[in-house]
Design goal:
Length: 401
C-alpha cells in the first residue's frame, strides 16, 4: 500500500509541476492557449465568404453584334464574374490580368454572330488566372452556364411552331439536378477548415510540449529532460503525470476548436457529438504521446519551432483531404501514417461533416488507438534513456568529487 500511495503522490506531484510549467512559461502559453484560441478564428474568418463571387474579368468583343452583347450581358449578370473592362484587343486584356486588375478574360471572335446565323458551331475563348484555382472555377462556371443557356434558347428559336412543352423538352432533353453532398454552398471554408482545426491541435501540442521540454533542459544543470529527484523515480508515473497535464489543458481547448468555432461561423456540423468526442479522445492521446516522444530530441526552446512549423502545409496535403489520397505517392502515404493528423482529419471530417458514425470510421479510430499505444511506448523508451543518462552523469560527478 505504501508503494501505491507513493506512486500516486509522485504522479500528482509531476502532474502539478507540469501544469505550473505550462502556466509560467510564456512561450508554452502562446502555443497552448493563444494560438489554439486565435488561429481557428483567423483562418475561419478569412474564408467566411465560402465562395469567390464577382471575379473581375476583361472582355474583347470583336463581333459587336446583338448576339455577342447578349452573351456578355448574361455573363455580367452571373454571380461568379463581373466585367470591369471592354478591351480593344487581347493585348490590352492581358495587360489587365498581368497587373491583377482582372483575373480572367473572354474573347468573342469576329464571326460569332455570322456562324450562329448560318447554323455553324462557334467558339468563345475564356482565359483565367491559374495562380488561383477559385478564379478559374468562377470564370469557367460562368461561361459554361451562359453558353448552355444560349444554346438552349437557339434550339427553341430554330425549332419554330412548337408548343411550350416541346420547347421545354428541346431546351433540356435530359433534366438534371445538381446536389452538393455535405457542402451545400460549395464553400471553401466548409471543405478546408475542419482539417485545419484538427491540424492546429496536433501542431500546437508539438510546439508547446517541445518548448516545455527545451525549457526543462535549459533549467537543468545537466541539461536532462527529466530531473534527478525523488519524485521522478517511476517511468510510468512521469509519463502519465505529464500526459495527464497536457490532456487536462487540451480537452476544453478541443471542445472550443472543434465545436464552438464551427458553430460561430455556421459551418456544417451534422455528426453525433458523442461520436465526435469518442473519436477525438484517442486523437488527443496519440498527439500528446507523439509530442512527448518528439520533445525528447529538443535541446533548446527555439528548436521545436524550426522542426515543427514548416510541416503544417505538407501534413495537410498528404492527409488525403486537400489532395486526393489515391493520388498521393506511396512513399508520402507511408510517411503520413506516422502522424495522428492523417487519421484524425479523415475520421473527424467523416463524422462531423458527413454524418458518419463511429463504426463507419472504425479503421481511423483503431489506427489512432494503435498510434496512441505505440507512442506511449516510444515515450517511455526515450524518457528511460534520458533518466539513465541523467543518473550516469550524477554518478560521474560524484566520482570526480
Amino acid at each position: 500500500m505504501y508503494n501505491w500511495r507513493q506512486a500516486f503522490s509522485d504522479l500528482n506531484y509531476i502532474f502539478r509541476e507540469e501544469l505550473r510549467t505550462i502556466i509560467r512559461d510564456k512561450g508554452v502559453i502562446i502555443f497552448f492557449f493563444l494560438v489554439p484560441i486565435g488561429y481557428p478564428l483567423l483562418y475561419t474568418f478569412i474564408y467566411t465568404n465560402e465562395v469567390v463571387r464577382d471575379v473581375p474579368i476583361a472582355v474583347v468583343d470583336d463581333c459587336r453584334s446583338a448576339q455577342s452583347r447578349e452573351y456578355l450581358r448574361h455573363l455580367d449578370a452571373s454571380p461568379d464574374v463581373h466585367i470591369i473592362s471592354y478591351c480593344a484587343n487581347m493585348n490590352e486584356a492581358k495587360s489587365l490580368i498581368k497587373h491583377r486588375d482582372a483575373y480572367g478574360a473572354v474573347h468573342i471572335p469576329r464571326d460569332f454572330s455570322e456562324k450562329l446565323n448560318r447554323g455553324e458551331q462557334v467558339y468563345v475563348g475564356a482565359y483565367a488566372d491559374m495562380s488561383g484555382m477559385l478564379y478559374y472555377k468562377s470564370v469557367l462556371t460562368a461561361n459554361t452556364n451562359v453558353s448552355l443557356a444560349m444554346n438552349a434558347s437557339i434550339k427553341v428559336e430554330r425549332a419554330g411552331g412548337t408548343t411550350a412543352e416541346q420547347d421545354k423538352v428541346a431546351e433540356h432533353p435530359i433534366e438534371y439536378e445538381e446536389v452538393s453532398l455535405y457542402n451545400p454552398q460549395n464553400g471553401f471554408a466548409t471543405f478546408l477548415i475542419p482539417a485545419v482545426l484538427m491540424l492546429i491541435i496536433q501542431q500546437t501540442l508539438l510546439l508547446g510540449v517541445g518548448m516545455a521540454a527545451g525549457t526543462a533542459r535549459e533549467k537543468n544543470a545537466f541539461r536532462n529532460l527529466v530531473p534527478v529527484e525523488r519524485h521522478h523515480r517511476g517511468l510510468l508515473r512521469i509519463v502519465m503525470g505529464k500526459g495527464a497535464a497536457y490532456l487536462l489543458v487540451y480537452i476544453p481547448l478541443s471542445v472550443y476548436v472543434l465545436a464552438v468555432v464551427p458553430h460561430l461561423f455556421h459551418l456544417n456540423q451534422i455528426g453525433n457529438p458523442w461520436d465526435v468526442a469518442f473519436f477525438v479522445l484517442p486523437f488527443l492521446i496519440a498527439c500528446i504521446a507523439f509530442s512527448m516522444t518528439v520533445s525528447a530530441f529538443v535541446r533548446h526552446r527555439e528548436m521545436c519551432i524550426m522542426l515543427i512549423v514548416f510541416t503544417s502545409v505538407p501534413l495537410l496535403f498528404i492527409s488525403g483531404l486537400s489532395w486526393p489520397g489515391s493520388a498521393v505517392p506511396p512513399v508520402w502515404k507511408a510517411i503520413s501514417y506516422i502522424f495522428p493528423s492523417t487519421f484524425g482529419i479523415n475520421g473527424f471530417v467523416a463524422i462531423n461533416n458527413m454524418g458518419a458514425t463511429l463504426g463507419d470510421v472504425q479503421h481511423d479510430w483503431y489506427m489512432l488507438w494503435a498510434q496512441a499505444g505505440i507512442y506511449v511506448i516510444t515515450t517511455c523508451a526515450v524518457y528511460k534513456a534520458s533518466i539513465l543518462r541523467a543518473r550516469q552523469r550524477v554518478i560521474e560527478m560524484w566520482k570526480k568529487q
